[in-house]
UniProtKB/TrEMBL annotation:
<dbReference type="InterPro" id="IPR032566">
    <property type="entry name" value="Znf-C2HE"/>
</dbReference>
<feature type="region of interest" description="Disordered">
    <location>
        <begin position="225"/>
        <end position="251"/>
    </location>
</feature>
<dbReference type="InterPro" id="IPR036265">
    <property type="entry name" value="HIT-like_sf"/>
</dbReference>
<feature type="domain" description="Macro">
    <location>
        <begin position="345"/>
        <end position="563"/>
    </location>
</feature>
<feature type="region of interest" description="Disordered">
    <location>
        <begin position="1"/>
        <end position="28"/>
    </location>
</feature>
<feature type="compositionally biased region" description="Polar residues">
    <location>
        <begin position="225"/>
        <end position="248"/>
    </location>
</feature>
<protein>
    <recommendedName>
        <fullName>Macro domain-containing protein</fullName>
    </recommendedName>
</protein>
<feature type="region of interest" description="Disordered">
    <location>
        <begin position="270"/>
        <end position="290"/>
    </location>
</feature>
<dbReference type="Pfam" id="PF13671">
    <property type="entry name" value="AAA_33"/>
</dbReference>
<dbReference type="InterPro" id="IPR027417">
    <property type="entry name" value="P-loop_NTPase"/>
</dbReference>
<dbReference type="InterPro" id="IPR002589">
    <property type="entry name" value="Macro_dom"/>
</dbReference>
<dbReference type="Pfam" id="PF16278">
    <property type="entry name" value="zf-C2HE"/>
</dbReference>
<feature type="region of interest" description="Disordered">
    <location>
        <begin position="488"/>
        <end position="524"/>
    </location>
</feature>
<feature type="region of interest" description="Disordered">
    <location>
        <begin position="545"/>
        <end position="572"/>
    </location>
</feature>
<dbReference type="InterPro" id="IPR043472">
    <property type="entry name" value="Macro_dom-like"/>
</dbReference>
<dbReference type="Pfam" id="PF01661">
    <property type="entry name" value="Macro"/>
</dbReference>
<feature type="compositionally biased region" description="Basic and acidic residues">
    <location>
        <begin position="270"/>
        <end position="283"/>
    </location>
</feature>
Length: 787
DNA sequence: GTTCTAGAAC
DNA sequence: GTTCTAGAAC
């Protein structure tokens, strides 16, 4: 408290209510800034128009639309700010009709409101992505010229970056509309808003999408005994647990000091009566709902070192159990001889972990209740990155046991996972796993992969691998804790109120809780979901844009990726390469060529590769031979074992070059790979050397085909034969090099001049290219035919 | 004044 | 990815 500040005259007028009111009276109203938040196709403009034209209460409204602000054409944010400022000064309320999905994009409008002492509202049009996409795709004559197939891409990309508006940004009111009904209600609300009326502050209409995570420490952490009864740990006797709440284990789950609970021990539970009794007791003390059963992550198919893995399991479990009382972890493996179980058991006992709250269990994770007598409401799945069933092991077993409903539920929650993250999927009650085993939640976890045959292979880098495995378990346990907390919140509304009240600064509980859940959503977005476009989004994008499997020969859009990589590093997830949304198209095609077989872009399909015309050809003839091997994304992944594949891809490329030469004998082809491809899934370019194409537009396009960035297929094959890998790939710096003719090597100041030059340059190709069949022309193919 | 590019925005 | 535009380059 600075007495000077309090006593000083209003050199800088504080945004006090009285001052604001005085100004309003002068202007005869109380303007407001309404920042619309939503992707293209969400109906922002319709909303704004409806408010502007439908106002029944006399409030003057101005729609500030960035798509039309420049004399009917798209303008800048600055123009919008200026227009908004002018309107507000005239006492008019404004609707900011631009996407405003990211905090930074809307910050200036919030600031403007602050400067002019008017309330700033956010209206988030949170319609389902597919609704926005389909609207954006099908609309005609859009002011911002965003329609058709590209709209899908744009919407998807924008939604990835979406940051839910927060009160802490400076909004006095945030309203979420989740469907057209909500939107109508919001329009009605603003239409009925008189010039001097104001709307209540706070957050309205937000759907709670997941378990609340913020505040969980307060709720479960040791030391906060107000809402959680402390576990008494291993010293409690079984009889004392009759009241249930205190002992995390029911008496039927006989946990030895050795902490391994084997199925044999539980055989007696097959007795129906006892089972019923068990179930009853479990229900009453609810231990099942506080138990997580999990398989060892990454140690099966992903071949993670068992010794290291067991250390990490014990470490993360110990940390977790120290932080949270009243929860139980069960490490499950099928075999009695399981080495990971025995290692974990050993290390856990050395570390003196509470053996009643961390147990190892031999059995089938999908039959813990019926066969093992264990009640575990939450089970973890060692998932694959696409969250798809199959593949064998625990993943296949869980998806099989849970039935289709798990697949559907999973799709609703997430589309893909990055190594080191997990996602909670509430298991529908129709699922056999729910009905039979009492599993209410499955948490999919993706760990690090040390298997060269699987995606995201870490090449035995255990520094990275261990970090990711740590992350994976931490993420799993945190998500588990959030489920427990959410359950307890449901059971005990008093505790929930305590949690909110203990938030302290919030004027009302509802607001606080909503903000919390909101924070949790953000956390979920940043931490749990993959930073790149989700598989579902990709799918929808592909559907909307098919065929969308063009090759992107530039890296011009790498910036957002890099930013996201930064985020990953922060959260401990280290990715070798982040593939953007469009970068997935070839992968999608390679995995499911049948889906696209009716497009004329696909020239040939085999078990090993797909040949297709590049959607944005950089020359008269430009096709791609795409490998269909999962996990083989670029030259960096190529090993000796892939040589036969590379040779066959080369042959396929040659065949197509020859076919094109039959049509146009003047062409010359080069076959090669980009050192650093923009799209995942290894693909070989077959490109004619005329570079006569309107799609070749910039320096990066040009340099990606005419500098050492382009790696001739023959050289790649030779290099792998000799060294086992493609070592001499050049980096992306060469893409910024000066523009030189690929024939005479003359330099040119810009793309148009260069293109003009190459259209007439008749120089022979550099001698280096004329060797080893790097160039394919009629003469070379004739020669090849002879030999 | 016109052309071109880089970067923002979609 | 494409479109658009401000400002650099000519």
């Amino acid at each position: 408290m600075n007495p000077d500040a309090g006593g000083s005259s209003s050199a800088t007028p504080p945004p006090s209510a009285s001052q604001g009111a005085g100004a309003e009276e002068e202007r005869g109203g109380k303007p407001v800034v309404v920042v619309l938040v939503g992707p293209p196709g969400c109906g922002k403009s319709t909303f704004a128009e409806a408010v502007v034209t439908g106002s029944t209460a006399g409030r003057p409204w101005v729609r500030i639309c960035q798509d039309t602000i420049g004399n009917g054409k798209a303008g800048t944010k600055i123009q919008c700010l200026k227009a908004a400022s002018d309107a507000l000064k005239e006492g008019k309320s404004v609707l900011i009709d631009r996407c405003n999905l990211e905090r930074e994009q809307r910050a200036d409008f919030v600031k403007l409101g602050g400067t002019l002492h008017v309330d700033v509202h956010a209206v988030a049009l949170d319609l389902p992505a597919k609704v926005c996409i389909s609207r954006a795709v099908s609309r005609k004559g859009h002011e911002g010229n965003l329609q058709g197939g590209k709209a899908a891409l744009v919407v998807n990309r924008m939604l990835q970056k979406k940051e839910t508006p927060l009160l802490t940004e400076g909004f006095s009111r945030i309203m979420s509309c989740n469907d057209d009904g909500d939107i109508k209600k919001a329009v009605d609300l603003y239409n009925a808003l008189g010039p001097s009326d104001s709307l209540p502050s706070g957050i309205f209409g937000q759907k709670s999408k997941g378990p609340v995570q913020v505040g969980i420490m307060k709720f479960l952490k040791k030391g906060d005994t107000s809402s959680v009864e402390k576990s008494s740990g291993p010293n409690i006797t079984l009889s004392e647990s009759k009241q249930g709440q205190q002992n995390p284990l029911p008496k039927h789950e006989k946990v030895e000091a050795g902490i391994t609970c084997q199925m044999e021990v539980e055989k007696g539970l097959d007795d129906k009566k006892e089972n019923e009794e068990h179930a009853k007791e479990s229900d009453s003390d609810n231990v099942g709902s506080r138990t997580l059963a999990f398989p060892s992550i990454s140690t099966a198919d992903f071949q993670f070192d068992l010794d290291r893995a067991s250390d990490i399991i014990v470490d993360t479990a110990a940390d977790f159990l120290q932080k949270f009382d009243n929860v139980r972890l069960v490490l499950v493996d099928l075999s009695e001889k399981s080495r990971i179980l025995s290692l974990v058991k050993q290390k856990a006992s050395k570390k003196s972990i509470d053996s009643s709250r961390f147990v190892t269990f031999v059995g089938d994770i999908t039959q813990l209740h019926t066969k093992g007598g264990l009640q575990c409401s939450v089970i973890a799945n060692a998932a694959n990155w696409r969250l798809k069933p199959g593949g064998g092991g625990v993943n296949a077993a869980i998806f099989n046991a849970a039935g289709e409903s798990l697949q559907h539920a999973t799709k609703k929650c997430a589309d893909a996972l990055r190594p080191g993250t997990s996602v909670v999927v509430p298991l529908p009650s129709v699922s056999p796993l729910h009905q039979r085993e009492g599993v209410t939640h499955v948490i999919h976890v993706l760990g690090p992969n040390m298997n060269p045959m699987r995606p995201d292979y870490l090449k035995n880098d255990y520094t990275k691998g261990s970090k990711i495995l740590h992350e994976a378990y931490n993420s799993l346990f945190e998500n588990f804790a959030s489920i427990v907390q959410s359950n307890m919140g449901k059971q005990n509304s008093k505790s929930g109120a305590e949690m909110s009240a203990s938030g302290g600064t919030s004027p009302n509980d509802t607001k606080m809780k909503r903000e919390d859940s909101h924070g949790s959503e953000r956390m979920k977005k940043h931490k749990l979901l993959p930073p790149t476009m989700t598989a579902k989004q990709q799918h929808e994008c592909t559907k909307a844009n098919a065929p969308n499997y063009h090759d992107k020969s530039t890296v011009s859009s790498a910036a957002p990726n890099q930013a996201r990589e930064g985020d990953n590093k922060k959260s401990g997830v280290v990715a070798s390469k982040t593939w953007g949304s469009w970068a997935q198209a070839l992968y999608e095609l390679a995995m499911h060529p049948d889906k696209y077989k009716n497009t004329d872009s696909i020239l040939e399909t085999s078990d090993e590769f797909v040949v297709l015309k590049d959607l944005y050809p950089k020359a008269k003839k430009h096709v791609l031979v795409i490998s269909r091997a999962d996990g083989l994304d670029s030259l960096a992944d190529v090993k000796k074992e892939h040589l036969p594949l590379l040779r066959r891809m080369h042959s396929a490329g040659l065949k197509w070059a020859q076919k094109f030469l039959e049509e146009d004998a003047s062409l010359v082809f080069r076959l090669g790979y980009h050192s650093v491809p923009s799209m995942r899934q290894l693909h070989l370019h077959i490109i004619s050397q005329d570079f006569n194409s309107t799609s070749l537009k910039n320096k990066k396009h040009w340099n990606s085909f005419t500098t050492p960035f382009f790696r001739d297929s023959v050289d790649v094959i030779e290099e792998i034969e000799q060294h086992g890998s493609a070592t001499s790939s050049s980096d992306e710096k060469v893409l910024a090099m000066e523009l030189r003719c690929h024939r005479c090597r003359s330099a040119h100041p810009n793309i148009p001049k260069l293109k003009s030059h190459i259209s007439t340059c008749k120089s022979s190709f550099p001698s280096h290219l004329q060797q080893k069949n790097r160039l394919i022309s009629l003469s070379t193919t004739m020669h090849m035919d002879c030999t």
